[in-house]
Amino acid sequence: MLTMNHSLMSPNLNDRPKGQEIDMVVVHYTGMQSAKAALKRLCDPAAQVSAHYLIEENGNIYQLVPNEKRAWHAGVSYWMGQHNLNDCSIGIELVNPGHDYGYRPFEKKQMQAALELMRCLIQSYPIPARRIVGHSDIAPTRKIDPGELFDWAWLAQHGVGLWPSPIPLKQETKDFYNFASHALEKIGYQIISSDKKDLIPVIQAFQRRFRPKKVDGNLDQETITIINGMVSLLT
Q1: Which residues are identified as catalytic?
Q2: CA–CA gap between residue 51 and residue 146 (Å, rounded)
């Protein structure tokens, strides 16, 4: 059973749009030097940021915003044709210094707590597996969290989220960027165009999530087969 600390509540919240259901989870890292600093910022009215939950590295969970309220964590965002994802999502912050302060693997107790929390949310709300995402998925030109060290594969093995198996393309194609633009859009990403320069941050976001060992924005064969595997998983 989940135990949560309710001693801190963020003032940075407002009402969700009338009739809006909760159908999404967005995972972040705090990107700050300590849990104390992150909690202070998430509860500071001047910062104008918040999340529904914060999970410390030892597995302790703080609920900072009630689920029914709209927390301010996603910012300018897009997924599966929808903008303004604060409206429909639950935001979960995991304490981690992030890429600016010494990015490191997420602790086992922290991941276990995240798993249990997400399981509870899935049981409580109609949240499909494809709508459990990272901040970098919904804002690939702005954000890189929770980053390549967050273990999405482990979560999927335990029934939360999706993890594709690579599938080679059945037909020959000379325009891999055109294929990728359509496929990544089907998965949920916002596609501006099939031009390489526009696709690079989206490919990086996909790699960060599903091919974390090498995040370079190159549309190599391995990345193509994983993208194809993800599309096949959704159809």
Answers
A1: 93
A2: 14
- Classified as helix, coil or strand, 231 is helix
**Rounded Cα gap, residues 56 and 77, in angstroms:** 25
Reported as a single tens digit per residue, the pLDDT across 54-94 is: 999 999 999 999 999 999 999 999 999 999 999 999 999 99
Same domain as 60, residue 28? yes
* Domain with 131 in it: 4-157
Q: Are 93 and 110 in contact (CB under 8 A)?
A: no
For residue 126, what are its two tokens? 């109609």
User: Residue 108's CB: how many other CB atoms inside 10 A?
Assistant: 12
Residues 105, 188 within the same domain: no
Q: Which residues contact 198 (CB under 8 A, 6 or more apart)?
A: 191, 192
Q: What is the pLDDT of residues 222-233, one digit of tens each?
A: 999 999 999 999
Q: In 111-206, which ranges are E strands?
A: 132-134
- Chain centroid to Cα 203, Å, comes to 15
Total residues found in the chain within this entry: 235
**Pair (51, 152) in one structural domain:** yes
Of the residues 107, 129, 157, the one at which a domain ends: 157
Helix or strand run (H / E) with residue 199 = helix 196-210
**pLDDT tens figures, 103-160:** 999 999 999 999 999 999 999 999 999 999 999 999 999 999 999 999 999 999 999 9
